[in-house]
Amino acid sequence: MQANSEEYCELCGSPIHGKGITMSYEGSIITVCNSCYNRIRKHAVIVKEDNKKSETQKKTTPKPPKMADTELEIVADYYKIIKNAREQLGISQQQLAQKLKVSENIIKRFESGKLKPTISQARQLEKILGIKLVTPLENEESEKEFDETELTLGDVVNIKEGKK
Ligand SMILES: [Zn+2]
């Protein structure tokens, strides 16, 4: 293992060859060269090497792959599922729109696949229609999240307009 960068003595400023000595000296933690260590050792306390190592390891250890249980997405054929379930229940797009508290146009766009429901809308649709629309997202794709945020904002506007 090579040192990633050359260390310099924090007392005399000369490069430290090999391992520096990390010490607690006059209230601060410093890394010093051997000669400075010999000079100040009576007044300083060596900081345990273990502490330093574990701290560095925490920073450099790559994160283990997360189980993305919070990441959710809408199933690809959501529009078919919504349309089929709505028709089976025998309710109109308008009725579904009222239940979901959105404009009828939103339902039309859902069912034509032009507009993807937001996660919260999909959750409501799941309850209303007794279907499954939300599925856990396996790989982390944050860009999709952004798209959904934009849709949410657009839908809020639509809801407001539809109520007027
Ligand atoms: Zn020194």
UniProtKB/TrEMBL annotation:
Which one of the record's GO molecular function terms can you name? DNA binding
Which CDD domains does the record match to this protein? Answer: HTH_XRE (cd00093)
Where is the region Disordered?
A: 48-67
Q: Which Pfam families did the record assign?
A: HTH_3
Ranges for domain HTH cro/C1-type:
82-137
Q: Where is the composition biased (Basic and acidic residues)?
A: 48-58
User: InterPro entries recorded for this chain?
Assistant: Cro/C1-type_HTH, Lambda_DNA-bd_dom_sf, MJ0586
Q: Which NCBIfam families match?
A: multiprotein bridging factor aMBF1
Task: Tell me what this protein is called.
Answer: Transcriptional regulator, XRE family
